[in-house]
Amino acid sequence: MFAASAFPRRSKWIAPPISSPALSAQWIVPLPLQSRACVAGDTGTALIAPFSGGSMLGLPGLRLPPAGFLLLLPFLLLLLPATPAPHRASYKPVIVVHGLFDSSYSFRHLLEYINETHPGTVVTVLDLFDGRESLRPLWEQVQGFREAVAPIMAKAPQGVHLICYSQGGLVCRALLSVMDEHNVDSFISLSSPQMGQYGDTDYLKWLFPTSMRSNLYRICYSPWGQEFSICNYWHDPHHDDLYLNASSFLALINGERDHPNATAWRKNFLRVGRLVLIGGPDDGVITPWQSSFFGFYDANETVLEMEEQLVYLRDSFGLKTLLARGAIVRCPMAGISHTAWHSNRTLYETCIEPWLS
């Protein structure tokens, strides 16, 4: 209700001149300028139809409303529908999956960027398999992350976005393969070895200090080696047969080895709305760096691009189909080291933000 003081004294009825025929059919009523019912623009007025009744003030042909109505008018105006507030589109929830030896803390800058550019977005940085736990077998991690993302997806019928960094990109690709009813709109693969890893990195030297990339296959392609996540996507181009037979993870999600779930996994993967691939030549960890774009070495260590890979040519898990429907975005960027992908503002604005609808 409006208090009496809310109505300026100037807001009173004024009889129009007798000679004004234009106002013989309506009254112009000044309204309190602070009233929610002031809907006629800056003038603070509204048009009120005339009322029947006895002649007042001795003015022929003019009839003013009863005094009781004037007292009720401010309260009746409150019943008018308020102008609806402008609708602000909501953003799809974002799920972030970290990489090898990482934790949710590593993504604090990314979280800030999303909050600044897409305020109100629900962002979940999953805090699972942190630090050394990220060395657990990837299928074990996939199961854990699946249990974490399923409730988030269930609460977001409009879909979700996945941002998956480094090793986490392989975890997410496996999730898209095994989840029958996932609703991922954008799968953003951030510097992830999607076609495998074959390089002497600091991570590798720490884990296997006596091995070089040339002989690491002896460890990784053994049952014992496959108990380490990094061996699940170790891809030695000089021992392709061993890779195909021993890889318990990458060869399966790539569809390079026959298995009974291959058709279903391909169908599931193709539910994704968009695949965004991000990487660059100065990464320093992903080897070759083109693996972030599904490129990889041949037996002579010459990099073959995605379109030259057998998994693409055979469309074994859906890459060729995705590209044909325009659902693959490639965003290479130089000058970014591996640990800086998720904190580089320019990279975020160029390669990530446009796809967070």
Automatic annotation (TrEMBL):
Predominant location: other
Gene Ontology molecular function, alphabetical: palmitoyl hydrolase activity; thiolester hydrolase activity
Entry GO terms, CC: lysosome
Domain of life where this protein originates: Eukaryota
EC number in record: 3.1.2.2
Record flagged with keyword Secreted: no
Subcellular location, record wording: Lysosome
Enzymatic reactions: S-hexadecanoyl-N-acetylcysteamine + H2O = N-acetylcysteamine + hexadecanoate + H(+)
Key words of the record: Disulfide bond, Glycoprotein, Hydrolase, Lysosome, Signal
Listed Pfam families: Palm_thioest
UniProt keyword annotation of Hydrolase present: yes
Annotated InterPro entries: AB_hydrolase_fold, Palm_thioest
Summary of the function given for this chain in its UniProt record: Catalyzes the cleavage of thioester bonds from S-palmitoyl-CoA or S-palmitoyl-N-acetylcysteamine (unbranched structures) but does not have activity against palmitoylcysteine or palmitoylated proteins, branched structures or bulky head groups. Conversely, hydrolyzes both long and short chain fatty acyl-CoA substrate.
Similarity annotation: Belongs to the palmitoyl-protein thioesterase family.
Protein name listed in UniProt: Lysosomal thioesterase PPT2
Organism (species): Delphinapterus leucas
Lineage of the organism: Eukaryota, Metazoa, Chordata, Craniata, Vertebrata
Gene that encodes the chain: PPT2
